Amino acid sequence: MYKPKPGIDIIGKILDALYAHNPDALFVMSLMHQYEERGSLSKKQLQGLLSKAQKVPGISTSWLGTLEAIILKMPNRYKSVEPIKKTPVYQQDEELGQLMQAILKRYPQHKRVLFLKARYDNHEPLSIEEQKELKKFIKLLKIQL
């Protein structure tokens, strides 16, 4: 169970004052239960408590100021935003794919083109020399596109 810290317990006093003002308020009762069990409240819960306490006329303004200071002292927790969908770094060149398909259609066992096709299918960029090599194969093999 929770060991209370020595000193003045402003949050406990505000919870007691709110409970005395309206004993049927479920929100206040749940906050009191959690505060007694855990010994603390989250920043959102404290903000809700502050908004409820500001509506009650009998609560001291110094208590409200202290509660605001406690809230401001707490860290902000943000949920991470969804990552922006970016275009891939490497985009396949459709022309190169068609060149490789044409060569492999006529010569399905061409080892160099099979190697380049495997790299192309794994989304690895082909160098300029490899692209020139494919165009040279098309010219040498006299393949019409």
Word description of this protein:
This protein is mostly helical. The model has no long low-confidence stretch (mean pLDDT 87). It has two domains: 10-73, no CATH class; 94-141, no CATH class. It has helices at residues 10-21, 26-38, 43-54, 61-73, 94-106, 111-121, 128-141. It is built from seven helices and no strands. The termini are far apart.
Number of helices, where a helix is a run of at least 4 consecutive DSSP H or I residues? 7
Number of strands: 0
User: What sort of overall outline do the alpha carbons produce when their principal axes are compared?
Assistant: rod-shaped
Integer average pLDDT: 87
Radius of gyration: 35 Å
Range of strand content? under 5%
Number of domains: 2
The helical percent reads: 55-70%
Q: Report how far apart the termini are.
A: 79 Å
Order of helices and strands: HHHHHHH
Structural class: mainly alpha
Biggest β-sheet, characterized? none
Instruction: List low-pLDDT spans.
Output: none
Can you summarize this structure?
The chain has 145 residues and is an all-alpha fold. The chain is 61% helix and 0% strand.
Please write out the topology.
Layout: H1 10-21, H2 26-38, H3 43-54, H4 61-73, H5 94-106, H6 111-121, H7 128-141
Helix pairs in contact: 1-2, 1-4, 3-4, 5-6, 5-7
List keywords for this structure.
single chain; 145 residues; mainly alpha; 2 domains; 7 helices; 61% helix; rod-shaped
